[in-house]
Amino acid sequence: MDLSFDTIVAPITAPGVGAIAVVRVSGPGTIKIAEALCSKAKDILAAPRSLVLSDIVYGGESIDSGMAVFFKGPESFTGEDSLELNLHGSPYIVARVLEAALSAGARMAEPGEFSKRAYLNGKLDLTQAEAIADLISAESDAQLRIAREQLGGKLSSALSELGDPLRNTLAEIEAYIDFPEEDIEPEKASAWLAGIEQVSSQIKTYLASFAQGRMYREGASVCLAGFPNVGKSSLLNALLGEDRAIVTEIAGTTRDHIEERISIDGLLVRLWDTAGLFDADDAHSPELAERLGIERSWEKLEQADLVLFVAGAADAPGKNLELRELVASKNPKLLTLINKSDLLSKDEQLKLGEVYGSCLFVSASSGAGLGELRSLTKSKLLGRGREGVLVSNERHAQALRKADASLASAAKAIGESRPPELVALDLRHALGALDDIVGVTDTEDILGRIFSKFCIGK
Ligand SMILES: Nc1nc2c(ncn2[C@@H]2O[C@H](COP(=O)(O)OP(=O)(O)OP(=O)(O)O)[C@@H](O)[C@H]2O)c(=O)[nH]1
Ligand SMILES: [Mg+2]
């Protein structure tokens, strides 16, 4: 890959007015740009990694004064010479400084281009670069924790360990290919098979963590569903702590679904309130908008990681039980809530609890049971909690699936005593898929896809 880069520039702080704004320059022309822009260029360049107060000059006049710092490559984020200018936080000053840098030979950086250079210069592997993007967009403790672990290299080191036994097996198989007159001893073949199966089972363990990892990284989706008027919107408001959804005593109040984000003990949850599901026997006949809303409710509840099926405490359970069965047939990950528990005595709750089986009594009005609802929701979503390496990114999961498919094919080839060349080919494919997770060697396409999701300046 061609590593001769040009010099790029971009603001690395958010746009808008602020106390300071930072503009970063990176590439082989950095020194020239520092000399063109900074009145104190000599001092700045003589003392890398130190802040030096300097005027920023353009067109013969000073346009700002700020703290400049020079990073001599490879001791910089990108691995190449870089300059960071801490300016007064005015979008106008930033625009002028960018103009000055462009006229001194830089070009505007693409989104994620600084990180892409850091990757191409070996400062970060791909999972770490992705972790930076995740870190910046984190909205919950769980997202932050998982991104920091990945940035620290936890995933990369687990994956490189995973490939080691395969590399050994491959070397042994290749030795047989080089000396085709020797027969493959049956013990050898079964040792290879055992090694491959061990790696495959580790890959499966990592893949099994993906359902949980995805929820940590992207948040989980939870759908409130049930008949009209049971208090779904009231529960959304109660969990959110604000009057977001309209609540009335009229059945069919919610038409279009509403999505709100809440944090449950550090886990980001996208909570969906939906239109009450239509009851075919009800005299109430929904109009078109309501019917369309109901169709969407079914779609949403099928997609959710968890359905909170809501029944009203004062309603007859028969129809609710039927509806719950139907909902469970679309999405079996379900928790039954009996809302409006404030209308029932303890005895009545006990009796109703027996009818519904496993369920939780809550009251959107009084707040009863909501704490338990939060903790049950989290444990239903995440199971036993997390341990070990967690795969949280779809790209990584896809590569692991690909590697495992190649291992299955290698194992099959050994089992059928196929030529060792075929086994070696499968193993190379598996190793290639694992390597792609931490660093691709030549695929601009993959790099483009990863880094274009970054923001400008990262
Ligand atoms: N007593 C009592 N009333 C409640 C409770 N929760 C909701 N309600 C009332 O039940 C009625 C319906 O509440 P909503 O939250 O609009 O019900 P919904 O399930 O969203 O209804 P649709 O949007 O029509 O499907 C309103 O009059 C609420 O005040 C509760 O916990 N206790
Ligand atoms: Mg509603």
Brief sketch in words of this structure:
The chain has 17 helices and twelve strands.
The tally of domains stands at 3
Regions with little confidence, pLDDT below 50 for 5+ residues: none
Biggest sheet strand order reads: 3-4-5-2-1-6
Shape: flat
The percent range for strand residues is 15-25%
CATH superfamily of the largest domain: P-loop containing nucleotide triphosphate hydrolases
Number of strand segments: 12
Helix % is 40-55%
On the 0-100 scale, what is the average pLDDT? 89
- How do the helices and strands follow one another from N- to C-terminus? EEHHEEEHEHHHHHHEHEEHEHEHEHHHH
What's the architecture of the largest domain in CATH terms?
3-Layer(aba) Sandwich
Q: Output the CATH topology of the largest domain.
A: Rossmann fold
Give the helix tally.
17
Task: Give an overview in words.
With 458 residues, this protein is an alpha/beta fold. The chain has three domains: 117 residues, Probable tRNA modification gtpase trme, domain 1 (Gyrase A, domain 2); 126 residues, Four Helix Bundle (Hemerythrin (Met), subunit A) (Up-down Bundle), CATH 1.20.120; 163 residues, 3-Layer(aba) Sandwich (Rossmann fold). Helix content is 50%, strand content 16%. The protein contains 17 helices and twelve strands. The strands form two sheets. The chain has a six-stranded mixed β-sheet with strand order 3-4-5-2-1-6. Strands 8-9-7-10-11-12 form a six-stranded mixed β-sheet, with helices on both faces. Strand 11, helix 13 and strand 12 form a beta-alpha-beta unit. Helix 7 runs antiparallel to helix 8, helix 7 packs antiparallel against helix 16 and helix 8 packs antiparallel against helix 15. The longest helix has 25 residues. The chain is flat, with a radius of gyration of 29 Å. The two termini are 22 Å apart. The model has no long low-confidence stretch (mean pLDDT 89). The protein binds guanosine-5'-triphosphate and magnesium ion. Magnesium ion binds next to helix 10.
